[in-house]
């Protein structure tokens, strides 16, 4: 049994260090008491407390002690190992100790911050310290495994985030593959007319970047494609991509659009997705003039040839490049990359979930995205604000927080709605001269020049009514309300309820995770927060990293975010990927498993358990062997081995048993 | 004559605020973001001296006098529109209820709202018969509060007679004894509670 | 065939007689096995609930306890009863203190309640148990040309009902369409009629009722069809006063069960059609009915 | 006021989900019972049933095992293996008289800091109600009983010898 063994050996000399973390730990845990307690434990040669162990002086102290007191093991009681394990391993190494002769005790996140009674919190800290001191004796000298990093990068999602990340990486000389689900890159931004707070035109700043992507020698652009499988590990990912058929050969089409004119449908008659259904398109189409790549595609839902096979195919005939191929099938491609940037973006709130605002029931009610197209010079109305019934609105109401800040829909503030509502208010007023009312709960304009933009709108005479609109109805109580849409709201600053008749209602919809965010995160083996956005590794210190090394996130797939922040984050993600690649190699945690051959009974229990098929059976020796390059260190095999011949580094049975005894022994 | 509007901290009763949030239904009160959708959706807010939103804020700040003295709580018709709309799931209707109860306990409800009288007569009638005869209840109510308003109602009375929708004989249940035991038990429970406190 | 218990509540024995008559007649015609809850007592209603909470829980509790013996769903046509009984169910389930008080009180009366009873509304039962299909089959003379404003009032879909949408309920519309009637679309379906105030604060109650009646008329409805005795009483009974205070609206207010009954060919006399203070004769005649 | 019994709970948390969730609970300053002692493993699949038995044997009143939700395992399917093993273990423990939630398996994702709080509070409450398990104590008693038994037996033999001698 473990404990006897530990008693026989002469105990290695342990150095114990406990951190106050300013007052973070010290305010709830009696640091001195723990330090004294540890000093008296068997094998402890040095026991110290210090205000900030992670600071340089703190690390120096450790390194110095290791040398002076010939310490053979190191235990630090401080914050979470997820934060500072590496720091103290380095300190150990500095002192000339193998970094894995170290064990960290989490008394901040797991004790000081979550308890209210100092006495019991201190007891807990003692137990955990005792366990670590007992465990660290069994630690072995280990070395990190180095593996080369593939210099190529995959960027998933071709919105402004993906575009910026791809260009940054490509400009640094890395080979980038940009995969986009839609037929063109550009994302939501491509649909906008102007951008807040500067009101510069979205197309003017976005389209140059889009064509730069297309023409960049280091970027392979795969639109109308989706990642279907991801294997491997940091620095060495194997990715499978499915490319949907466009029924037009991408390399042949030059985007002359002759085929669209030639289509048997003389008039466009199908819902135009890019224009939010406000415009119409033909079965053969291109999303918008600056679409990238500028390649047409055929919609199998509406194309007669694809549905019935009975069409004269004038489109194909009109194409002098012979680019049409109605037999085109989806194809799958594989690529090897070292790092992946996820920038899969967001979805806007589905207003059908808020029937009280009458979307779909009253033609005068629009979503913000629809209005983006409506005020867009290159939109279906060339920027003229015309309602579905052909009239021009004299009064417009913009309802903020639709699908935000509401326990019944989404609890969070979507962060961009206040600002884009201000922008739309300005544009609508500018394009139509209508009276514009903004109905807001709290005005959130925290960005650079944002408050100034709000001030500009106030000056333009836009009405700002602080209150959440209850409902939009066609119920008139006074003559001037007849034939109008009536919004009922409390003017909370005036302190009474108002009824405001308008011709047009704009629903400022909030931002949500993509509907398939859960599948995507599973595919890439990362996490999602409770609201469904991708989970960053640390909210402040690792905002673009994930818990899976080599996979980074940027833009609104991580949380609602506007363009400036998205671009900044995309740059950060690219930089993280670069620092990984340019290091040339990664050091993997040595927590892999290995088999002690003489103890292996050859029962084969472990072989099928390994999810990475790292375990093979040597028929000659009748023993199992583990390929440590493939092993990712979960330890499932170690737990299952009947003869106990499988050992997982850093999590050996001895280590865990002694830890169990440690936390319980009194 | 001008009325001073400034409020001093001494004017609010933090205990009252604590009490409201400690009651069933009052839990989420502190989370109110003052969006005012409760007032917007309330069919009665146009008659209220304070809109529901303002009342909520006054209650959580402890302006007991103003809250319990307000018409607002008596104008609530328990249509639950606010409760359904509230983005913070605040049970506004139930808060109105518990404020009514408190106002009655402290005897500060405005005289022109005979709801407490109605409730009392209602209770008395149930205790006697187990069921309520609307006609008797209404007559009783008006006689106790404002009898000439009652005269104004005779037209309706005649109509109800004509259409056989009005009877002057109270409906009663068989097992009145059982029901009384139940109600008495509750009173006893309440009493023991109060004694325990004092 | 599923069995049900029926909780009339005080109104359906008084001003809401017509609701009881028509509801039971329709159940009979549909061959439903339904029996009045034995020795039921007043549910407590919201006026009482608002000032004597625990007592009204106990009142409702006694009814639920009696119903539990029979282990059947209870149908409560009156909105106030439906709300209070459901609210009691919820309170007894979620609030230990209330449960303690009420259960003990019931014990004192020799009653016991475990909390298994389901309280349901006629709309819920007709749509989800009986089914539109079966009902449509029994429509003998559809009320063609009858234009109705379906009025749900407050306490049915709010806050406890789960069988219909809180903002835009449709179950009654479906039934009325099945009966051959036309339904106007209007935004006041679930807006409070002020019924609980007309008695105590008349000026307020009257205005709310007037708003509903006027809008229904404006939308071209020949009659309002409702499912709540208090709403019916309030909208029907006070039109005289409304006429003198605002304007004459002259809008009959029927129960959906009455319209359904007529469409199923039941005689008006069995459906209490004549009990409306504002006569529906003319409108119904327009609908080809006698 | 009498000192109430404070159960000792050993918690094995997987590094990627539950341990992270516990960190999140800390960062969010959620307050929960101080009774659990967390032992970090890379995957809940590393937890050998022996660890659980050992914890009870060494005096734990409860053992909590936390892993990623099914389908979310950082190592693809480690938590499924955990599930299978622990089902069996639970039955075993029952036969040994250890049940009523003294051993508990929970899926807690990295985002569910609040679940760490509620699970630990709930388990502490339940195990506290159950009272101490105290296997070490029981072991001692059993040893003692056996010794006494032996003593008696030996004594009996001596008496017999005496009789024969006489």
Note the main attributes of this structure:
heterotetramer, C: 290 residues, alpha/beta, Glutathione S-transferase Yfyf (Class Pi), Chain A, domain 2, Rossmann fold, 2 domains, four-stranded parallel β-sheet, D: 166 residues, 52% helix, 14% strand, elongated
Fold blueprint:
The complex is a heterotetramer of chains A (666), B (198), C (290) and D (166).
Chain A: H1 2-8, E1 14-19, H2 31-39, E2 44-50, H3 56-68, E3 73-78, H4 81-94, E4 102-106, H5 108-112, H6 118-136, E5 145-148, E6 153-156, H7 160-171, E7 176-179, E8 194-195, E9 200-201, H8 202-215, E10 219-222, E11 225-233, E12 236-243, H9 258-262, E13 270-271, E14 280-281, E15 284-285, E16 297-298, H10 304-308, H11 314-318, E17 331-337, E18 339-342, E19 346-348, E20 365-367, H12 368-374, E21 395-402, H13 417-432, E22 435-440, H14 450-459, E23 463-466, E24 471-473, E25 485-491, E26 496-502, E27 504-509, E28 511-513, H15 517-523, E29 551-553, H16 563-583, E30 585-588, E31 593-595, E32 615-618, E33 623-626, H17 636-640, E34 646-648, H18 653-664
Helix pairs in contact in A: 2-6, 3-4, 6-18, 7-8, 7-16, 13-14
Chain C: E1 3-6, H1 9-13, H2 17-29, E2 33-36, H3 45-51, H4 53-70, E3 73-75, H5 79-94, H6 96-108, E4 119-120, H7 122-130, H8 132-137, E5 147-151, H9 171-178, E6 182-183, H10 195-198, H11 202-218, E7 223-226, H12 229-237, H13 239-245, E8 253-255, H14 256-263, H15 281-286
Parallel strand pairs in C: 1-2, 1-3, 3-4, 5-6, 5-7, 7-8
Helix pairs in contact in C: 2-14, 3-4, 4-5, 4-6, 5-6
Chain D: E1 9-14, H1 18-27, E2 36-41, H2 49-57, E3 62-67, H3 78-95, E4 103-107, H4 113-130, H5 135-165
Tell me, briefly, the overall form of chain D.
Answer: elongated
Question: How many individual domains of chain D?
Answer: 2
From the 3D structure, determine the CATH topology of the largest domain in chain D.
Rossmann fold
Task: Provide the helix percentage of chain B.
Answer: 55-70%
The major pleated sheet of chain D works out as: 4 strands, parallel
Oligomer: heterotetramer
Portion in strands of chain D: 5-15%
The second-level CATH architecture of the largest domain in chain B is Orthogonal Bundle
List how many beta strands of chain B DSSP finds: 0
């Amino acid at each position: 049994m473990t404990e006897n063994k530990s008693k026989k050996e002469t105990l290695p000399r342990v150095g114990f260090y406990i951190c106050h973390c300013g007052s973070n730990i010290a305010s709830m845990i009696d640091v001195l008491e723990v330090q004294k307690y540890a000093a008296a434990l068997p094998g402890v040669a040095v026991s110290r407390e210090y205000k900030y162990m992670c600071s340089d002086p703190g690390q120096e102290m450790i390194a110095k002690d290791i040398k002076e007191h010939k310490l053979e093991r190191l235990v630090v009681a401080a914050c979470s190992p997820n934060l500072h394990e590496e720091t103290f391993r380095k300190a150990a190494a500095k002192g000339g100790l193998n970094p894995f002769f170290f064990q960290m005790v989490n008394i901040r996140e797991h004790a000081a911050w979550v308890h209210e009674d100092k006495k019991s919190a201190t007891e807990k800290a003692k137990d955990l310290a005792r366990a670590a001191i007992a465990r660290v004796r069994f630690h072995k000298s280990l070395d990190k495994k180095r593996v080369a990093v593939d210099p190529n990068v995959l960027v998933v999602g071709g919105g402004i985030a993906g575009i910026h990340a791809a260009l940054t990486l490509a400009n640094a000389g890395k080979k980038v593959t940009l995969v986009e689900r839609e037929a063109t890159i550009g994302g939501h931004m491509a649909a906008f007319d102007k951008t807040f707070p500067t009101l510069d035109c979205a197309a003017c700043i976005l389209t140059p970047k889009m064509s730069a992507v297309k023409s960049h020698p280091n970027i392979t652009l795969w639109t109308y494609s989706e990642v279907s499988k991801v294997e491997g590990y940091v620095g060495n990912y194997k990715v499978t991509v499915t490319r949907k058929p466009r029924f037009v050969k991408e390399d042949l089409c030059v985007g002359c659009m002759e085929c669209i004119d030639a289509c048997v449908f003389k008039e466009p008659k199908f819902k135009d997705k890019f224009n939010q259904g406000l415009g119409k398109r033909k079965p053969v189409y291109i999303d918008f003039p600056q679409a990238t790549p500028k390649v047409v595609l055929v919609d199998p839902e509406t194309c007669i040839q694809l549905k019935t096979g009975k069409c004269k195919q004038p489109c194909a005939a009109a194409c002098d490049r012979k680019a049409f191929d109605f037999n085109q099938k989806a194809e799958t491609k594989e690529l090897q990359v070292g790092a992946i940037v996820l920038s899969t973006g967001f979805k806007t709130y589905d207003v059908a979930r808020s029937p009280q605002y009458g979307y779909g029931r009253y033609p005068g009610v629009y979503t913000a995205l629809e209005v983006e197209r409506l005020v867009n010079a290159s939109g279906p109305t060339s920027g003229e604000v015309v309602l579905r019934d052909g009239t021009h609105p004299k009064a417009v109401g913009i309802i903020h927080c639709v699908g935000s800040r509401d326990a019944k829909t989404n609890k969070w503030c979507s962060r961009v709605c206040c600002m884009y509502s201000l922008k739309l208010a300005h544009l609508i007023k500018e394009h139509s001269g209508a009276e514009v009312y903004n109905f807001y709960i709290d005005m959130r304009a925290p960005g650079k020049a944002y408050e100034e933009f709000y001030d500009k709108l106030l000056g333009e005479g836009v009405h700002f009514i602080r209150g959440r609109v209850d409902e939009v109805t066609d119920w008139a109580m006074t003559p001037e309300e007849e034939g109008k849409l009536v919004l009922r709201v409390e003017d909370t600053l005036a302190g009474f309820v108002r009824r405001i008749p308008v011709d047009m209602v704009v629903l400022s919809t909030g931002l949500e995770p993509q509907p398939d965010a859960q599948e995507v995160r599973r595919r890439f083996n990362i996490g999602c927060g409770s609201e469904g956005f991708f989970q960053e590794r640390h909210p402040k210190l690792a905002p673009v990293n994930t818990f899976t090394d080599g996979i980074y996130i940027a833009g609104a797939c991580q949380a609602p975010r506007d363009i400036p922040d998205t671009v900044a984050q995309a740059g950060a993600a690219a930089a993280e990927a670069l620092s990984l690649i340019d290091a040339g190699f990664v050091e993997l945690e040595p927590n892999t498993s290995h088999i002690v051959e003489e103890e292996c009974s050859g029962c084969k229990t472990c072989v099928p358990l390994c999810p990475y098929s790292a375990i093979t059976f040597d028929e000659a020796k009748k023993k199992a062997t583990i390929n440590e390059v493939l092993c990712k260190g979960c330890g499932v095999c170690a737990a299952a081995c009947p003869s106990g011949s499988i050992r997982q580094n850093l999590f050996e049975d001895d280590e865990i048993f002694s830890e169990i005894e440690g936390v319980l022994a009194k | 004559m001008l009325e001073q509007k400034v409020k001093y901290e001494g004017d609010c009763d933090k205990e009252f605020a604590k009490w409201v949030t400690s009651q069933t239904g009052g839990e989420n009160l502190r989370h109110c973001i003052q969006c005012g959708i409760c007032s917007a959706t309330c069919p009665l807010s146009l008659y209220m001296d304070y809109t529901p939103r303002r009342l909520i804020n006054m209650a959580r700040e402890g302006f007991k006098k103003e809250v319990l003295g307000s018409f607002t709580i008596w104008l609530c018709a328990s249509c639950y529109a606010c409760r359904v709309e509230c983005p913070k799931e605040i049970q506004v209707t139930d808060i109105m209820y518990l404020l009514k109860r408190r106002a009655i306990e402290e005897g500060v409800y405005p005289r022109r709202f005979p709801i407490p009288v109605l409730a009392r007569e209602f209770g008395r009638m149930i205790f006697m018969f187990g069921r309520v005869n609307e006609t008797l209840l209404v007559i009783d109510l008006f006689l106790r509060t404002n009898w000439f308003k009652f005269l104004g109602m005779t037209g309706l009375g005649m109509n109800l007679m004509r259409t056989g929708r009005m009877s002057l004989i109270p409906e009663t249940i068989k097992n009145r004894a059982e029901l009384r035991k139940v109600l008495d038990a509750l009173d006893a429970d309440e009493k023991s509670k109060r004694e325990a406190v004092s | 065939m599923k069995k049900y218990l029926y909780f009339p509540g005080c109104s359906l024995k008084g001003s809401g007689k017509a609701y009881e008559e028509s509801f039971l007649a329709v159940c009979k015609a549909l061959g439903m096995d339904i029996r009045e809850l034995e020795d039921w007592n007043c549910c407590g209603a919201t006026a009482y609930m608002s000032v004597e909470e625990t007592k009204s829980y106990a009142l409702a509790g006694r009814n639920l306890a009696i119903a539990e013996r029979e282990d059947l769903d209870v149908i409560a046509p009156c909105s106030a009863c439906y709300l209070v009984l459901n609210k009691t169910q919820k309170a007894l389930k979620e609030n230990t203190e209330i449960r303690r008080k009420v259960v003990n009180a019931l014990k004192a009366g020799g009653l016991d309640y475990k909390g298994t009873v389901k309280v349901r509304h006629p709309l819920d039962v007709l749509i989800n148990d009986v089914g539109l299909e079966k009902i449509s089959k029994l429509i003998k003379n559809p009320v063609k040309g009858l234009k109705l404003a379906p009025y749900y009032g407050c306490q049915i879909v709010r806050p406890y009902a789960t069988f219909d949408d809180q903002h835009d309920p449709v179950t009654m519309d479906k039934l009325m369409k099945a009966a051959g009637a036309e339904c106007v679309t209007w935004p006041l379906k679930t807006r409070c009629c002020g019924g609980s105030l007309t008695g105590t604060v008349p000026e307020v109650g009257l205005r709310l009722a007037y708003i509903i009646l006027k809008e229904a008329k404006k939308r071209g409805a020949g009659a309002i069809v409702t499912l709540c005795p208090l709403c019916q009483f309030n909208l029907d009974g006070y039109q005289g006063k409304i006429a003198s205070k605002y304007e004459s609206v002259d809008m009959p207010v029927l129960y959906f069960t009455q319209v359904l009954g007529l469409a199923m060919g039941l005689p008006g006399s069995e459906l209490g059609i004549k009990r409306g203070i504002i006569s529906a004769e003319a409108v119904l005649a327009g609908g080809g009915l006698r | 006021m009498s000192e109430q019994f404070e159960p000792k709970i050993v918690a094995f948390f997987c590094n990627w989900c539950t341990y992270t969730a516990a960190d999140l609970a800390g960062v969010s300053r959620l307050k929960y019972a101080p009774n659990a002692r967390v032992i970090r493993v890379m995957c809940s699949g590393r937890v050998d049933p022996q660890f659980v038995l050992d914890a009870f044997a060494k005096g734990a009143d409860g053992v909590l095992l936390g892993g990623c939700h099914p389908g979310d395992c950082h190592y693809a399917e480690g938590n499924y293996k955990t599930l299978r093993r622990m089902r069996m273990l639970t039955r075993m423990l029952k036969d040994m008289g250890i049940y009523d939630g003294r051993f508990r398996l929970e899926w807690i994702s990295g985002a569910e800091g609040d679940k760490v709080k509620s699970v630990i509070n709930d388990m502490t409450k339940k195990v506290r109600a159950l009272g101490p398990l105290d296997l070490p104590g029981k072991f001692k008693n059993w040893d003692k009983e056996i010794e006494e038994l032996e003593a008696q037996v030996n004594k009996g033999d001596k008496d017999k010898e005496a009789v024969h001698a006489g």
